[in-house]
């Protein structure tokens, strides 16, 4: 096993594709968004590359008793009306600093070989509290990239995210810029405590505007409602518990 | 010292051997199983390879004052009635992600050089509670491998093990598949708290059926009984202690 | 992305320059000092090299929505009256042992290519308590370097710093000496709890004497006063809190 | 800076030298022993090699204001009556698994180049309690090495040290054996809580017998007495404190 092994599963002829990344991260926003995009473009998406690496956890996932070695995958998406895309998804980030650099470089190499010069890194930005209105915060590799993204409703904030952007999303901006890519990161606000399909939808709606996709959100909304049912049940339980505990006043009558 | 050093201790002529792995892990199930298999086939087993690596702990074990450098070993087992086998055992797993990939690749290289195209990774799956009936859970690199294993009593469960399979056992499935191996993982249910010879026996009984071994279990059962004596003593001590602590009711008569 | 990538942003013709390093560390003393030096020599400083490395955190910083890949920078400073200098600054140290060696070696390579044979590593030495008089402690790669530094007010102490000097500052002495550099480390005393502009000024005043710079300190003093306001507010709050808690004696009159 | 850099400081003509290692470890026994040996043979010892490595901490020690890059050193010791020796000392072990393998291999390479085929690794074995009689426990790379060591009073115990031997001492046995060295580890019993010059003396006395050295122990005994003074003071303080706390009985007369 080399440091990195790339399986060419299929080829695809893409016209000026954009690279779209959604690996696991805050609120799983990026991964939810990208997985939904692949689901909605199923008939038009082709798995083209698998990347295996010593930098991933030494692990297989098991689905119905059958193993799959940890990897990340690139899908070519070609739809009649929207921009062609190369979509990166996977279950794991690299496990070391050097691994992040290695994998991001490899992904940019592949994207270049498919003719891409633009990329969108999708993710979440944690706010620490539950959210009603899902804003999308942006970051770009070059100031000239801001206007079209701002037109799509994305906010650029002076000091956000305060800690910068870490992992593959950050490096797609940083290494991407060094190789001449126009790189944009779209971060849906999310509490940071829960998997957040609503935040993923907010991010996808920006992408829809920018790349002219036309997506349905039924399945993503369903997952959001399931999550909200879970949250409601937890909140009910907490309310119930606080009712079960007698207040100070009640205690007078007990003793 | 290179990243990896392989000592060819002896050669052996094996016919379509299967690779069987049992390195330390949950409940030491895999290691107990493989060590018992080697004990029971002692006259027919030959140590053929030792693998040393910088990825192992920088450590020697001391047995009666004599040192042995950390390594893992491959034994060729050739018995008249059962399938030939190449059995991997050792006291340590690799200590880094990259190390797991490196060592598993090296083991598969050696297995290939002996003509193996099948492998069985043995291990335990933790249940979190003491066990009466030891089920064996399976995972395979390809769905076509399920039927014979199911016939031997192995269960395939939809979402188990939930966290996937980590370490050499996992990579034998994942890297094995990429190199054309038919790879199976047999995981004995075990509490996860104790070394578990009963679980190792359950796993070996499956292997016996599949590979036509004919094993005795006296020594393994003895170890299991020793473990059960230890557990009983701990439980007695706990019962005794709770008897020594006066209950609330008793306290009325003291004060 | 290689282990290390060096961007030659510009060239500069320097005469016997000294390398001056100020990466983040105790009290951010070194970084504050070097950033202030670059601010004060702004018209005479040129960014000449950027160093990117897998050993840095896989991260971009975001400034007003625009990303910048983690790197460290070398600025050529050429002023009429002072010694020419090559000034190293950055937001991060390397993240591994080997990374510190790699980056320090690379910086020394570049410094050599600009004709440098002397270097000054700037930093802080923690005292564990708030400081009134800011002493500067020195360490040198060779005893012959002590006298001029002592003349500038630097103290050499028998057993300080007790734990040695770690990171790039330490290696500039250690690796620098191995390559024939005259290397000096100037460490401003600092509590170790806070960013400390006063300590940075003390270090810079030594450098001013040694290299004949003529610096203003208005902006650094301003930052120091801001820090002191913060400290005062914290101390007031603590005093207020202890006044709000009635002492034992007071309690007699309440109840 | 390469992974490893070896400075040939001087050459020495040794006759069948033994390699003696004493790097920091349990109770600093090995390092104390080797440093004492070098002190006692001062006129007859020559520093021959310094080893620098990325695997050491990125650090300089400071002695009276002058820096020294972390390294380990080999001294050639040639005395009229005792066996010639190559003595390894240093302030640090490697900081990673691979680093231990790398440095031990390098040391064995150098030892071979000086004609050595035997080595003695010196260290401590922790007992967890203060010690009156300092036994020395042995481990050897080959059973044939036991008799002469046993004659010198070293004990070989069935299951000790239980956890094996870790670090350079362990690898000198393990890697040494693989390269044809006769390797012995001498471990002085020590509490494991304190720097232990008495244990170092016990180890050196074995070495004296085996290699025919004739050492004085004044300075080592002095350090031992200093340590014992410290221990006595701590014990006195503890006794005093327990006397200051009134026992239950005393309390009757107070209230």
Fold blueprint:
The structure is a homotetramer of 255-residue chains.
Chain A: E1 4-8, E2 18-21, H1 29-40, E3 45-53, E4 59-63, E5 66-69, E6 72-77, E7 85-90, H2 97-113, E8 118-126, E9 136-140, H3 146-151, E10 165-166, H4 168-178, E11 182-190, H5 197-211, H6 218-244, H7 248-254
Parallel strand pairs in A: 2-7, 2-8, 8-11
Antiparallel strand pairs in A: 1-3, 3-6, 4-5, 6-7, 9-11
Helix pairs in contact in A: 1-5, 2-4, 5-6
Note down, in words, how this protein is organized.
The structure is a homotetramer of 255-residue chains. Chain A has an 8-stranded mixed sheet with strand order 1-3-6-7-2-8-11-9, with helices on both faces. A two-stranded antiparallel sheet of chain A has the order 4-5. In chain A, a hairpin with a 2-residue loop joins strand 4 (59-63) and strand 5 (66-69). The first copy, chain A, has helices at 29-40, 97-113, 146-151, 168-178, 197-211, 218-244, 248-254; strands at residues 4-8, 18-21, 45-53, 59-63, 66-69, 72-77, 85-90, 118-126, 136-140, 165-166, 182-190. Chain A has 7 helices and 11 strands. The first copy, chain A, is α/β, with parallel strands linked by helices and 255 residues long. Helix content of chain A is 37%, strand content 25%. In chain A, helix 1 packs across helix 5. Chain A is globular. The longest helix of chain A is centred in the C-terminal third of the chain and has 27 residues, at 218-244. The A-C interface holds A 97-98, 100-102, 104-105, 138-143, 146, 156-158, 160-161, 164-168, 170-171, 173-175, 177-178, 183, 185 and C 1, 5, 52, 54-62, 64-70, 95-96.
């Amino acid at each position: 096993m080399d440091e990195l092994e790339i399986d060419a599963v299929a080829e695809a002829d893409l016209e000026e594709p954009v690279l779209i990344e959604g690996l696991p991260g805050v609120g799983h926003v990026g991964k939810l968004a990208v997985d939904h995009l692949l689901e909605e473009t199923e008939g038009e998406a082709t798995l083209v590359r698998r990347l295996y690496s010593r930098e991933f956890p030494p692990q297989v996932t098991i689905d119905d008793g059958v193993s799959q070695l940890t990897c990340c995958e690139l899908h070519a998406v070609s739809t009649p009306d929207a921009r062609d895309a190369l979509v990166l998804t996977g279950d794991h980030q690299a496990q070391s600093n050097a691994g992040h650099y290695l994998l991001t470089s490899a992904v940019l190499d592949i994207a270049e070989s498919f003719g891409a010069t633009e990329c969108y890194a999708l993710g979440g930005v944690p706010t620490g509290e539950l959210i009603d209105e899902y804003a999308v915060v942006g970051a770009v590799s070059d100031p000239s990239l801001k206007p079209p993204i701002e037109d799509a409703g994305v906010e650029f904030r002076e000091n956000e995210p305060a800690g910068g952007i870490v992992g593959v999303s950050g490096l797609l901006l940083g290494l991407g810029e060094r190789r001449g890519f126009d790189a944009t990161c779209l971060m849906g606000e999310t509490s940071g405590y829960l998997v957040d399909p609503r935040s993923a939808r907010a991010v996808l709606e920006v992408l829809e505007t920018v790349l002219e996709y036309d997506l349905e959100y039924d399945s993503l909304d369903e997952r959001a409602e399931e999550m909200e049912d879970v949250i409601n049940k937890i909140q009910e339980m907490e309310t119930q518990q606080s009712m079960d505990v007698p207040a100070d006043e009640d205690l007078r009558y007990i003793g």
